[in-house]
Amino acid sequence: MPSPPCMVWLPADHRLLGDHGHQMPYLLLGDKYARAVKVGAQAQPLMFPLADAAQVPQLLALVDGVMLTGSPSNVHPSHFDEAVHNPTLPLDPERDSLTLALVRACVAQGVPLLGICRGFQEINVALGGSLHQAVHAVPGLMDHREPPGTPDQQYAPSHPIDIVPGSAMERWAGGLRATVNSLHGQGVARLAPGLRALAHAPDGLVEAFEVEGARTFACAVQWHPEWRCTDTPFYQAIFQAFGDAVRQRHHTRLRDARGFATAPDKP
């Protein structure tokens, strides 16, 4: 019997879709995120619809990694002790309640963790950091939001990043500078304790970080490497590194499960 595939948990977005007055709730996952896990990390993307924070320990034991995706919604600012500055922007409290607990569990248990855009912000908030709710309104910071136009233009290279020397990010990028896309309105204000910045935008905004002392891959980026990740060696290297960590956990998890299944009963 073949072994089960490596599996990566991607939490869903909660959205109301349809005409006003006839909206229905949906659980959504963007194709580009699932495809990047499947092709870039060579693992099977997985969703647990309606999972809640209380189920994190049981469900996390079934997977080999977690990827927190980007989303049109923002992390609710109550999680970093602020009021909502712009009530017209979308929020997703159901996702927050799951992912913030999931981040802390991944770090504690050594489960490979990759955060992208909103996922990057979720990791920072879950570990005690805060966010700028509107980066473009902060004096001295650039407008990091997507330009109007087609999706191809939106995901086009937008600005350079400066990468910390000697970091894993330098290896993946093949140097100390790279150009990335930019599609976010929020950004890191205070980096959480235990996180180490790996890259910055020209205005000083943190663009990538890692969990210091993590037992496995635990990194996040503010841009979108999932977009056609195999077309860009830098982006492909990020998913390759994540996939390598996922496969290592998969091997260990199955080995431990088989050992438990075959262990003799103790007298």
Task: Tell me what you see in this structure.
The chain has 267 residues and is α/β, with parallel strands linked by helices. The chain has a single domain, classed as Class I glutamine amidotransferase (GATase) domain (Rossmann fold). It has a nine-stranded mixed sheet with strand order 4-1-5-6-13-12-11-8-9, with helices on both faces. α3 crosses α4. The longest helix is centred in the last third of the chain and has 30 residues. The protein is globular, with a radius of gyration of 19 Å. The two termini are 31 Å apart. The C terminus is likely disordered.
Arithmetic mean pLDDT: 93
DSSP strand content: 15-25%
Per DSSP, the total helix count is: 7
* Envelope shape: globular
Q: Give the termini distance in whole angstroms.
A: 31 Å
The CATH class, by name, is Alpha Beta
DSSP helix fraction: 25-40%
* Fourth CATH level, the homologous superfamily: Class I glutamine amidotransferase (GATase) domain
CATH architecture title: 3-Layer(aba) Sandwich
The biggest beta sheet reads:
9 strands, mixed
Q: Round the Cα radius of gyration to an integer and report it.
A: 19 Å
Our count of domains comes out at 1
Unreliable spans are 262-267
Q: What is the structural class? A: alpha/beta
Helix and strand succession?
EEEHEHEHEHEHEHEEEEEH
At CATH level 3, the topology is Rossmann fold
How many strands in all?
13
Widest sheet: strand order?
4-1-5-6-13-12-11-8-9
